[in-house]
Amino acid sequence: MAPPALAQVDDPPLPAAWLANPERAKIVALVRHLAPQFDIDPRFALAVIATESAFEPGAISPRNAQGLMQLIPETAERFNVKKVLDPAQNIRGGLAYLRWLLAYFQGDVRLVAAAYNSGEHTVDHYRGVPPFSETRAYVSRVSALYGKPSHPFDATVTDPVCSLSPRHNLIAEALDEAGTNEKLIYRNASASLQTITGQQ
Question: Which active-site residues does the annotation give?
Answer without folding.
Answer: 52
